Every structure is written in structure tokens, then in C-alpha cells.
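Cross-posted from the bioinformatics board.
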Amino acid sequence: MSPETSTATTAGFRHFHDQLSSLKEQLLGMSSKAEERTDIAVDALLTRDRDKANLVIAGDADLNRLEVEVEQAAVELLALQQPMARDLRFIIGAIKVSNDLERVGDHAVNIAESAIRLAEKPKINIRIPEIEVMARRARKMLSDSLDAFIRADGALGRKVCRDDDVVDSLHDSVFRVLLTHMMADPKTITPSLELLLVGRNLERIADLATNIGEDAVYLAEGKQIKHHQEG
Amino acid sequence: MTAVAPAATRPDTNRVGTIEARDFSFWYGKKQALKQISMAVPPASVTALIGPSGCGKSTFLRSINRLNDLIPGIRHEGDLSLDGKSVYDASLDVVALRQRIGMVFQRWNPFPKSIYENVAYGPRINGVSDSDSVDDIVERSLRRAAIWDEVKDRLRTSALGLSGGQQQRVCIARALANQPEVLLLDEPASALDPSSTQKIEELVYELKQELTIIIVTHNLQQAARASDHTAFFYSGELVEFGPTDQIFTRPREERTDAYITGRFG
């Protein structure tokens, strides 16, 4: 037996689904801004471009506003539509995802601030390719996690969670490389500390993407995998 | 299809008010209304039966106290038991069964008598004649139905003069006067305003400490608020049965999810 499509689909039901679609659009909008901010912040860091870094800092208010808008829309849907099951899990997830994306924006701002401080100091030749790889990976995790959430794709959500291990080990490498520089040449201590902060912020962005991946699994499968609760 | 409450909530068969269906099927003439329903309703708790119109939930409810017996051309297979004993046992007295399993309907149906007489009716026909005892039963039942304070000064006036919500609670008091183990509620609040509905739901919450309550409702929010377990029926099948919080947040069956999110039915 397969569920019949209701012939009595009401206007209210369509309205609710239009609102759910618009909530998805809002999340996608937030996500593309968060990814873009991360890109620009890392680019500003690598190219010592203060203007770009300032752009990231100025743009943060945008993400903050979008977070509040998503939360308001979600609370309204909860109160007025009293959603259940998959719809309930989506709306609760949307609130959490928007909060995570707003924090991604905060980490991009932190990276931009490091970029400005580094640009103000004489250039020191430290090459940390791991930072670029971390940035690329964290950004990919972010976009995968949003895809997983929007499409309710549990397998992709789990992949994002696994990818976090790679970013964590890159973060460890960044720490070791910078430590070596600092021990070898004390002049590198200040820029190295900034780069450590950048690594830490990228690692946090990957963690936030992991949270979104976990929310995608809960949305898709109703299973809680946070804190190794699966089973 | 077989569904039972999860292990932690499996009925304690020592407790009274345990209802269990085993491969229970039911036909109205040639039309099969229930298909091999197996479920164990935990005692002293509220179980909600949900599903679209014609899914079999009311048939299942009315099979428990054999109210369907009154319809010509019906037959059943499998079994339904109360406290381990088949309700279809040939030696069972159906009237006694219906004393143990009270029922309240969508449309309140008090007798055209006084509030007192409505509640006293059951105990009297069951042989309680001492007027003090009848008084006690009436007061206790009206208190348990959370309507005593509203009617204690007008017990001798017609029950039909009360509001719909009050009449429904008098009907619940009338069912409780027989000291049932199980209370079947068929859409008990669907014709009531939100405030009366809330009173019925609070009453259900109070009564479940002592009774097994099975409630048929089309109001999913009511099922979510008022029940401990929920059974989803579709086309005569029991699709899913589980703790209410799980059914309404993480249903296991795609069909349950589709129904409670309004995608079909």
C-alpha cells in the first residue's frame, strides 16, 4: 500500500509548505554569505589585504540580522502550524543551523581581524599551506552540511562529520609547524600566534559544519548522533 | 502486522485494565475493517488511536467492549483480551464486560433525567439500593469527573440543562460510577470549545493514574498532548504503535510521518 496523495490538500497546507520552502531559502542565503565571508577573510589574510578584511567585518551585521529573521520565522511556524515529525525536526534544525551559521560569520570576522593585524606588521616569510587546505576543507564541509540539511541527506551529513577529523589533524599540523618556527626564530612569534588563532577559527568553522551535519542526520533519520549517542 | 509497546512499557499483566489484541481481524459483511491487529495496551496510561476516517480505529475501540456485536453481519478472527481473558469468551457476560469497560462518545448523550439520576443509574441497575451508598457513588464519580463543584447544588436538575462540556463530563461520571478498569473515549472533545477540551484532557490525565484509557481522536495535537502511547491505523492496519513522543517527533514508518505531517489522509 502506498500513501495516497490527498485530494483535499488545503490552502493552509500549501501555505505551510510555502513557508517551509522560504525558510530553506533563508538558510541557503545565510549559508552562501557565511561561506563567502570565510573565503574573503582567508583571502585577505593570504594577500595582506586590509580592505577585504574590513569588508568581512562590516558584513557581519548581515548574518546577525538573517539569524534573527530565521529564528522569528521558525518560531512563528511552530506556534501557528504546530508541525510534527519531519516538519518539526526541520524547523528545530533550522533554528540551530542559523545559529551555527551566524557563528561561522563571527569566526570569519576573527580571521579578518587577524588579517588586519598581520598586514600592519612587516611581512615575515612563514608559509603554512595547511591553513589554505584547512580553509578549503572547512568551506567544503560547510557547503556539504547545508546541502545535507536542505536535502535531508543523512549519508552526506555523516560524511561531513567524518571530514572533521581531517580538519582536526590539519589543525594539529599547523600548531606543530608554527611551534617549530617560533622556537627557531623569536621574530616569528607574533605572526605565528596570529596564524594559530586563524587555524583555531578555521577548526571551529569545521566544528560548526559538523553540528549542521549532525542536525541533517537527525532531520533525515530521527537519530541523534551528537556526542556519540548513536545506537 | 504486529506492534507492541516497547519492552519498558509492556503491560504488567498483574495490573487490571490490560487490553491485548492478537492477530485481531474484523469484518462488516465482506468488508474487512481490521487486519490482524496485534497490540498490547499498557494499563494505567492513555493510548491514542489516530488515523484517517475509515481506517478502523473506531471499529477497534468498539470491539474492545463488543459494541459492534449489535451490528448484523459482523465477524472477527484472532482475539482481544482484558486482563488475559478473551472478551469473546462464550462464558463471558457482555453486560458485565461493559461495566468493566466504560465508554464515552463524541456527542454527549446524558439520559433526559437529573444529573443525579444519570450517575446513579448504573449502580442502581447493578443492585446498589442503599441510598447512602448511591449518594456516595454519585458524589465520588462526579468528583472524579471534575464536575462536582459545578453541579453539587443542582444535582436534581436536568442534565440536559448543562453546557456541552459539562454534559460530557457527566457522561464520564456516569461511566465511572460502574468502577470500570478501562475507559474508551471516542472523539470525546471534538465538539467542545478549547476550554472544555482542556478540562476533558486534564481529567484524562487525572484518571489515567487508576484507569486504562483509550482515546480515538482526529485532533493530532490532542493525541500528542494527552496520550502516553499512540497507535496509527491506516486502511484497517496498525501501521505503528509506540510512545507518543517518538511517534510525533521520530516516527519509524514513512506512512506515519506522511499522515501526521498532513501529507496524506
